[in-house]
Amino acid sequence: MDTHLIDGVALARRIRDELRDRVARLAARGAQPGLAVIIVGDNPASKAYVRNKVKACGEAGVRSIHVELPESTSQEDLLGRIAALNADPAVHAILVQLPLPAHIANEAVIAAIAPAKDADGFHPLNVGRLVVGHPHVVPCTPAGVMAMLEAEDVNPWGRHAVVVGQSNIVGKPLAHLLLQRGATVTICNSKTRELGRHTARADILVAAVGRPNLITREMVKPGAVVIDVGINRLPDGKLCGDCDFAALQGVASRLTPVPGGVGPMTIAMLLVNAVRAAERTLDPEDAP
Ligand code: NAP
């Protein structure tokens, strides 16, 4: 079987091109989407992610408000910053780059962001809306995976989807989105016994763990669609996903590469969330 590689770079570019029209329509009405990106501390990976997000904003015509705070920032100070951004009408969406320093409670920070300005969809209200089947703001990586499946004409309806990884930012929201699209969903975690017996039953297999080569050839059903969310840095500095990419060629019908798969989609969907938040301020009911 030929394995078709899903090109996340090309699809993300298409989504970003479409967004430019929406940004132009907003500009014609005197509005520019504003995304505030807050980073606390000096984590090099987080800094690189934030740089990419800020650059992507510039290219899409989204104004980015980059707030860089020292590692020593108190939780109270951070909550104060968020309150000010919540109150600023030029800021439509707010993202706090995770992880935060250990002395700051993630949950308190996420809950402090106004739900309507929650760029990542991590606020408990938005999580609840997603779980009950009325998503408002969808977390960027799961939204990117669903957009990839749609672009590839992979309909989850009636199919068995196996999601490996159950984090709040990827695995859990993605499992809910797949359920809502009619899939039968299995979620695996670090305690799952005989992981390969579960993954080998998947029509759609998503790996979101953070372990190179966790998913090997014999763990994949021939013809399965495999989405590799993992991003791992190998000792030689190269990036790889959670799947044994070379070994899955000829087994998976469709496969995402790392890099160049889900990663670019995550940033594109962040821009979508920021633009949609701005559109909602003008047309509360109409925004797509
Ligand atoms: P996370 O919070 O560390 O969660 C990892 C999940 O994997 C946990 O649910 C854990 O189970 C599960 N797990 C660990 N070892 C396992 C095993 N041997 N078998 C089955 N499940 C196992 O990570 P995350 O934030 O979801 O990110 C996952 C990966 O995706 C990372 O490589 C991250 O860099 C990448 N990522 C990529 C993007 C992108 O844009 N492409 C975006 C976000 C994340 P327990 O719950 O039992 O501990």
Topology diagram in text:
Elements: E1 4-5, H1 8-28, E2 34-40, H2 44-60, E3 63-69, H3 75-87, E4 93-96, H4 106-112, H5 124-131, H6 140-151, E5 160-164, H7 171-180, E6 184-188, H8 195-199, E7 204-207, E8 225-228, E9 232-233, E10 239-240, H9 245-248, E11 254-255, H10 262-282
Parallel strand pairs: 1-11, 2-3, 2-4, 5-6, 5-7, 7-8, 8-11
Antiparallel strand pairs: 9-10
Q: Can you describe what's shown?
A:
- By secondary structure, the chain is of the alpha/beta class.
- The chain has two domains: 30-115, Leucine Dehydrogenase, chain A, domain 1 (Rossmann fold), CATH 3.40.50.10860; 140-263, Rossmann fold (3-Layer(aba) Sandwich), CATH 3.40.50.720.
- 41% of the residues lie in helices and 15% in strands.
- The protein is built from ten helices and eleven strands.
- The strands form three sheets. The protein has a six-stranded parallel beta sheet with strand order 1-11-8-7-5-6.
- The chain is globular.
- The model has no long low-confidence stretch (mean pLDDT 96).
- NADP nicotinamide-adenine-dinucleotide phosphate (NAP) binds at residues 141, 164-167, 169-171, 188-192, 195, 208-211, 214, 229-232, 262-263, 266.
Strand content: 15-25%
Strand arrangement across the biggest beta sheet: 1-11-8-7-5-6
The CATH class of the largest domain is identified as Alpha Beta
Number of helices: 10
Helix content class: 40-55%
Structural class: alpha/beta
**Major sheet description:** 6 strands, parallel
CATH superfamily of the largest domain: NAD(P)-binding Rossmann-like Domain
Task: For the record, give the distance between the C-alpha atoms at the N and C termini, rounded to a whole number.
Answer: 38 Å
